[in-house]
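In response to the reviewer comment on reproducibility (Comment 2.3), we provide here a single inverse folding case reported in full, input and output, so that an independent group could reproduce the run without further information from us. The structure tokens appear first.
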């Protein structure tokens, strides 16, 4: 079976609901994963905007995630999981820099780590 990363908050290719943006509550969407490859010791999760006028902007990077946890709840915040500093200078999900336009693409990716 293939590794799967998904959210129940919105369908692939659809608009991100306002509550997950800086115009709403600016909270992380819930994320779920299944079938990490055998031997995966941890996961890294990255949320990026590749359509930003300044180039790619990283809104969130969480790391050292337990591959058997199955996901992260909505509104994961500082202290809930290990998080790297994003392009807004915060170690948390932050979508406040997104202008209110349509047609932007957010890429949510997960990377498997093992030794």
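Designed residues, in position order:
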């Amino acid at each position: 079976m293939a590794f799967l990363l998904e959210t129940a908050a919105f369908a692939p290719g659809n608009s991100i609901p306002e509550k997950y943006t800086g115009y709403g509550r600016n909270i992380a969407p819930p994320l779920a994963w299944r079938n990490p490859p055998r031997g995966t010791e941890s996961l890294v999760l990255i949320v990026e905007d590749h359509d930003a006028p300044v180039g790619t902007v990283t809104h969130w990077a969480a790391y050292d995630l337990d591959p058997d946890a199955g996901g992260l709840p909505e509104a994961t915040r500082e202290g809930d999981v290990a998080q790297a500093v994003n392009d807004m200078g915060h170690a948390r999900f932050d979508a406040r820099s997104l202008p209110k336009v349509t047609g932007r693409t957010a890429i949510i990716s997960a990377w498997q780590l093992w030794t």
